[in-house]
Amino acid sequence: MTVKSAHRPIGVFDSGIGGLTVVKALRKILPYEEIVYFGDTARVPYGSKSPETITQFALQDAKFLLNRNVKMVIVACHSASSVALDELKRHFNLPIIGVIEPGAKAAVKATRNKRIGVIGTQATILSGAYERAIRRLCQDVEVIAKPTPLFVALVEEGWYDNKIALEVAKLYLSPLIKEQIDTLLLGCTHYPLLKRAIQKVFPNKIRIVDAGLETAYEAKEQLENLGLKNRHRKRPAIRFYLSDLTPNFSEIGRRFLGTSLEDVMRASLPE
Questions:
Q1: 129-158 pLDDT, tens per residue?
Q2: How many Å apart are CA 197 and CA 162, to the nearest integer?
């Protein structure tokens, strides 16, 4: 790979703004990489769509990023990662990483008693993608998966570190406490903001695996192996594209990214 190739940006797409937690992790792990982010806010959520529609949308999102000359695509959407990743890899000739496999790999590595809890949206949990990924790595691990859809609304309302968040977390996670899990995999890009509330619910300290953070580590490893890591010591800006500029996108985006969104552009995709 050439030096010129290494200077190209990393592309990240999600069905909305939640994937900015992956961008935040990338900025921590790969601070000198330029990032182009596309959030398909006009068609969110993907989870309620058919696999065929999700795959179609994912192909369009990836093509948009390729038109920005990216060197790698990260699928920050759990729904797209679970149903469209193989098709994306067949369709495009560049490194493509989803959030499922890195999270599963880290959870298997973290558990000591081989009892892993997985939480996510209804669509992600019903897909069984995390269970399949975990069992491919270790067949004797017991996986207990539970949908926790209200967590998404709590984060988008900014209620992720208050009494309401703690009470909802208790209701959702009490069954997982009884299952005696020692590792909890966060299967949604919104959920890292709820780490503090989640940890408070468990009487014993558990290992919390952030799939987005693990995806950033996977990206770093692949870039290094391919000779595509940017060696230029300059912190570049992030380019943000959204298919719809909702009234509160800036406020919600700041929660996920940890800083204000700058250089946000609206982009319409071809049908």
A1: 999 999 999 999 999 999 998 998 899 888
A2: 8
